[in-house]
Amino acid sequence: MQPLIFDIKRYAINDGSGIRTTIFLKGCPLSCAWCHNPESVSPHPQKLYTANKCIGCNTCVEACPENACELTPLGIVTNPELCKLCGICADVCPTKATEISGQTMSKEEIMAKIEKERVFFDQSGGGVTFSGGEPLQHADFLIELLDECGERGIHRTVDTTGLAKTETLLEVAKRTDHFLYDLKMMDSSKHKSWTGVPNEKILENLQTLSAIGATINIRIPLIKGVNANEQNIRATAAFVAGLAGEKKKVNLLPYHNIAARKYQKLGGEYDSGEMQEPSEEEQEKAVAIFAEYGIDAILGG
Amino acid sequence: MFEKVKIENPIPERPALAEGNFYAPLENQIGPGMNPRIQRLRKLSVETEPTISIERALHETAFYKENFGKYSIPVLRAMTFLDHCQKKTLYLGDDELIVGERGPKPKAIPTFPELTCHSVEDFHVLNTRDMQPYYTTQADIETYAREVIPYWEGKTQRERIFNHVPEAWKAAYQAGLFTEFMEQRAPGHTALDGKIYQKGMLDFKREIEENIAALDYLNDPAATDKAEEWKAMAISCDAVIVFAERHADLAEEMAGRENNLQRRAELLKIAEVCRHVPGRAPRSLWEAIQMYWFVHLGTITELNGWDAMNPGHFDQHLNPFYEKEIAAGTLTRDEAKELLSCFWIKVNNHPAPPKVGITARESGTYNDFTNINLGGVKRDGSDGSSEVSYIMLGVVEELHILQPGNSVHISAKTPDRFLHAAARVIRQGHGYPSIFNPDIYILEMLRQGKTLEDAREGGCSGCIEVGAFGKEAYLLTGYLNVPKILEVTLNNGLDPVTGKVAGTETGDPRNFASFEELYAAFHKQLSFVIDQKIRVSNYIDRMFAKYAPAPFLSVVIEDCISTGKDYYDGGPRYNTSYIQCTGLGTITDSLATLKKHIFEEKTFTMPQMLDALGKNFAGEEFMRQTIMNRTPFFGNDDDYADEIAQRVYGDLFDLIDGQPNIKGGQYHLNMLSTTCHVYFGKVMGATPNGRLAGKSISDGTSPSHGADTNGPSAVVKSLTKIDHTKSGGTLLNQRFLPSLLKRDEDIKKLGHLIRSYFTLGGHHIQFNIVDTATLLAAQENPDDYKELLVRMAGYSDYFNDMNADLQQEVIERTQNEAF
């Protein structure tokens, strides 16, 4: 299946070295409760609707061939039974209140987008970052793009959850200059309850990747009520300290409760539940614990 | 109205915060590093209210009454200047090391009735308006009405100009198709090169006297005119020497009365400095700064030229003195910084002269646009940054005052250390410094015909305009409202706002069958308006050459002494007239809308569009939203829109560049807007890009507000599709939130963005580091946000000193918070 792209972000300055262009591939084996990009989880196109942009012009209702759209006092409501995700509603919407997330793009189209930013890569030591979702879910497509970027001398970063076949990861690693590797928490059963999957494969893959000498930044979301407790941070630090290869750098990404609006766009609700933003002291403390294990952890991308 | 007039107080109350102090209340209120002297001088400078001094006008009027007709005009001008320098009230304040004020005290601004004579009503408006008031006492207003106004009635430069302009010009001017700079102030935009650090006024006088002695009255038909100009130059050299000597006398007299031994020594040193400069070339850093300051005061007292005066590459000029004295052990870094701080505060003591014929709502600024260039390249092409550049950046960061403006000049040779030091100052949210690309502006000047060395010694003054410092008269003649020219085209020559004729008939747009027909009509209109503009600008130029020459300014600008011609009369080595074209984003987006939606996709018809524009899109929200969300706009690295921008820019260039300006020079294209895009927006109805009536148009070459949705790198790509080397300056505003620049890593990435823009050929970029919440809060509670300094188009101003329209415009500038 041709993977879907749900965003291409230019001037990304928090996705690796220098100024980068980040390609977001749709579809993810994890479904983390705190996910900031909820539209990244499903590999299929999805309709996004932003009620406060809608002017109630009724154009989409009239244009829909399936009669799936209805104008209500709460804005446009789409009947999922009838909607075939043809995208006509998004095409005719004058305000872009309705959008379709996820589109196919050819390798050439993606490369053309990447090339637009070359001067910034050259000046900053930046390049392209493949993110998601989980880019490794689309390994063939990803490898093609990585090879093409390699031939063109563009620095390649892959941002991964680590959940993939080890052989796939190693194939990708051959043509990747730098990994951003997400590590959520060390306790597998908790990992499963928060992300939907256990973590054994993720940890094993990280060890394997380290052993072959890959350059890796480990990214850890820091969420109070989930993984920001001392026990988990110590376990994580000990695990990272035990990894083979060059000393790993750790980015601690403090959780922000900003995703709620995105869930509304998908027509869903977001429940932050026990998840809270860690205080500054808690953030500093996490940094200090990593330092105890000889690991340089920094806050932010 | 009269009871509202404020009574003058020697130092009116004005909290220091009102003029900006970005340091958080809990931190050091004044700023780290500022010594007590500088703290006191700064406090006085920022707390003093601007006032009007009528002294210069009284001296001048009395002198003209007595002497008009006895001398040639240049000599009369010089003698008027000398007379004022002999008589004017001096000011030498406590703590001062660098001395001299244009008025009798800090922030007291003289008037220039020979150019534009303020009416009694003007003074009352200036006394009572909310924004940028200038206070005049009732007694002074009465004296002015009795002594000054009657004499100048019908004789001012402004009246002379307006009596002679053709009807077509007036129609276009009143419709807001363009502005005219020289109806309010004298041509200026001047910056100096390094000659005043090598030669004193006595040296210049010697050259002048030799030239007079060598005059060939038998064969040179211009000999008499040259003789008069040279005499005038020599007299004006005497004038500034007399002015300095009077300060030396005063300092010695004060020293005699001074009990504090340290201050007595300082006063005696001031006297010694003022006896030496400006007559002779400076020997020390102190003398070099004081030398420049006397020249600066001389030029801004002689006339009220636009953008005051500018030392140009001040760090490069001062660094040899600094290095010599550091090596000799006669100066410390802190002493150098203190002297520079004193100088900075001096410039801040000189708000811009207020306009005449003003309305209370009219926006203005106290900023007089002195723009000190830091870094850049030297005459030989090597890196120009030095220790003095870093000291100056420190002064900018610590003082945080409105004036002088400053800019950093980043060539490929400039070290990252300097770029990052500047970025850290930018991060503080001052709006300063703005950032220029010498590698491109040197090419701009070479293309205009300057020599390589003269181009390298040049830079940017005022806002973003390039010139060969010390060798060129490069005059801004006025702004051109390019989107309004499309509006007039869409109305077949009429201004739809007033219903009056504003341009020429170019056909009913309902009959245009293609975008090319529309564009041809727009082009014809553009050509007609530019011709009107140039015709009158040439006339005004001659009026200044004949009636208001500037012999003192001519002394310090290269080739005026050797040619015997005035700065306003083609004396400088180079003579450029710029027309500043405003609203590239708005015109591009409007044309893109018409091209795509009317002619290509036929989403709407021309009558529908004209109807919607006529009613300001009332009831046409679907249409307006479709336009704003479904049209390729400038600033997104989208060739559809960017090619239109290239085409408009190219046509502006073809119509303006190379037209002769009757001083031996040429007109060139400039893409600056300052705050004029706000005024231009006000005189316009809705535009095809969905912009509503009265809202400001886009500034400089920046994208329209909210049109750029793909981040700063896409903006940079769009901007560099136009060839900056064909203009004398482009302007790109980018707003960054503080969160984007928190870490040192972010500073580096900002540096990369700047280097990328410059690699692609960008001329200038500037950053406002603020967040929208702060701005909205500042609008709600202005008193709590008095420190908010915002970078406007080419300079900085206090958010609270701006009127509501300008504030709105700042808020709407695209944020980059999402990155």
Q: Which labels suit this protein?
A:
heterodimer, A: 301 residues, alpha/beta, TIM Barrel, Alpha-Beta Plaits, 2 domains, 11 helices, B: 819 residues, five-stranded mixed sheet
Describe the structure in your own words.
The complex is a heterodimer of chains A (301) and B (819). With 301 residues, chain A is α/β, with parallel strands linked by helices. Chain A folds into two domains: 5-33 and 104-260 and 268-299, Aldolase class I (TIM Barrel); 46-101, 2-Layer Sandwich (Alpha-Beta Plaits). Chain A is 33% helix and 21% strand. Chain A has helices at 59-63, 88-92, 107-115, 118-124, 139-151, 166-173, 188-195, 200-211, 230-241, 260-265, 280-292; strands at 5-12, 20-25, 46-49, 69-72, 75-78, 98-101, 127-131, 155-160, 178-182, 216-222, 249-254, 297-299. In chain A, helix 5 packs parallel to helix 6 (166-173). The longest helix of chain A is centred in the middle third of the chain and has 13 residues, at 139-151. The model of chain A has no long low-confidence stretch (mean pLDDT 93). With 819 residues, chain B is an alpha/beta fold. Chain B has a domain at 168-190 and 470-723. Helices cover 47% and strands 8% of the residues of chain B. Chain B has a five-stranded mixed beta sheet. Chain B has a three-stranded parallel beta sheet with strand order 8-9-10. In chain B, strands 1-2 form a two-stranded parallel ribbon. In chain B, helix 1 (36-47) runs parallel beside helix 13, helix 8 (201-213) packs antiparallel against helix 9 (223-257) and helix 18 (482-489) packs across helix 19.
Helix-strand layout with pairing:
The complex is a heterodimer of chains A (about 300) and B (about 800).
Chain A: E1 5-12, E2 20-25, E3 46-49, H1 59-63, E4 69-72, E5 75-78, H2 88-92, E6 98-101, H3 107-115, H4 118-124, E7 127-131, H5 139-151, E8 155-160, H6 166-173, E9 178-182, H7 188-195, H8 200-211, E10 216-222, H9 230-241, E11 249-254, H10 260-265, H11 280-292, E12 297-299
Parallel strand pairs in A: 2-7, 7-8, 8-9, 9-10, 10-11, 11-12
Antiparallel strand pairs in A: 1-2, 3-6, 4-5
Chain B: H1 36-47, E1 51-53, H2 55-67, H3 73-87, E2 108-110, H4 120-128, H5 138-152, H6 157-164, H7 167-175, H8 201-213, H9 223-257, H10 261-276, H11 285-302, H12 314-328, H13 333-348, E3 371-375, H14 387-399, E4 405-409, H15 416-427, E5 434-436, H16 438-447, H17 452-457, E6 459-461, E7 465-467, E8 472-481, H18 482-489, H19 515-547, H20 551-556, H21 560-563, E9 574-582, H22 584-600, H23 606-614, H24 621-629, H25 639-656, E10 666-670, H26 676-682, H27 711-719, E11 733-736, H28 744-759, E12 764-769, H29 772-780, E13 789-791, E14 796-798, H30 804-812
Parallel strand pairs in B: 1-2, 3-4, 4-5, 8-9, 9-10, 11-12
Antiparallel strand pairs in B: 5-12, 6-7, 13-14
Helix pairs in contact in B: 1-13, 2-3, 2-5, 3-9, 8-9, 9-10, 11-13, 12-14, 13-14, 14-15, 15-28, 18-19, 19-25, 22-25, 29-30
